[in-house]
Design goal:
3 helices; 0% strand
């Protein structure tokens, strides 16, 4: 998503409400910018979340809170 050519994906993310979004890193492949060319790692999910926050015009904390809640609702069937 952080790649310049990912314009369609960026438009999808902008259109989706945070309540319908989960995030991941494609680890160990396709490291996000600025780590492109290096091995990807799960810790880079924060950078993906920050990029989503920028696209959606909200805070990183809000993206983190909402996507964590979405994960729990989907996989753990419990609310925060």
């Amino acid at each position: 998503m952080t790649f310049r050519q990912a314009t369609e994906l960026k438009e999808v993310v902008k259109a989706l409400p945070l309540e319908r979004l989960l995030i991941e890193t494609d680890s160990p492949y396709l490291a996000p910018v600025p780590h492109r060319g290096k091995e990807n790692q799960p810790a880079y999910v924060v950078e993906v979340a920050a990029y989503i926050a920028q696209l959606k015009g909200c805070s990183l904390a809000e993206v983190g809170r909402k996507t964590t809640e979405n994960f729990r609702n989907l996989f753990l069937q419990q609310k925060l």
